[in-house]
Amino acid sequence: MDDFQELARRRHIAMVAHDSKKLELLQWADFNRRTLSRHTLYATGTTGTMLTFELGLEVTRFLSGPVGGDQQIGAKIAENVIDLLIFFWDPLEAQPHDPDVKALLRLANVWNIGVACNRASADLMISSPLLDNGYRPHRPSVESVRDGWSKLRAT
């Protein structure tokens, strides 16, 4: 495979985990280390540090989620950089930055980004043949997103 084909198959994967889920994400990433190492990885603060120092993965690290990291990843989604979001979130524990979490998940949905919220969905996504075959999801145009927000505000 030439360099262009390899770049075409390289995905940009963002990883986030709430404190109570960080160990689970680390174990999942360790199991999938070989696959993850073939892609461009991003993560919020502590999660990115763990992935780098515990597993040796090259990760672009953003701020911690509560101080802006979730929003930084959301910006990368809106910029059409992120292909997949692995977000091990804790639905049973209140998060002080819950509005940021909801905004991140909303952006992933608006821009049609695959989201895995637990180990089962992450396993299915990372093992899918679509991950490496050049599949590109349909991304809405900026205009269609603006139109959607306009309609939403009108109701």
From TrEMBL:
Position of the signal peptide: none
Catalysed transformations (reactions): dihydroxyacetone phosphate = methylglyoxal + phosphate
Entry function: Catalyzes the formation of methylglyoxal from dihydroxyacetone phosphate.
Annotated GO CC locations: cytosol
Name under which the protein is recorded: Methylglyoxal synthase
HAMAP family named among the record's database cross-references: Methylglyoxal_synth
SMART domains: MGS (SM00851)
Catalytic residues identified in the record: D70
Family note: Belongs to the methylglyoxal synthase family.
Gene Ontology MF term list: methylglyoxal synthase activity
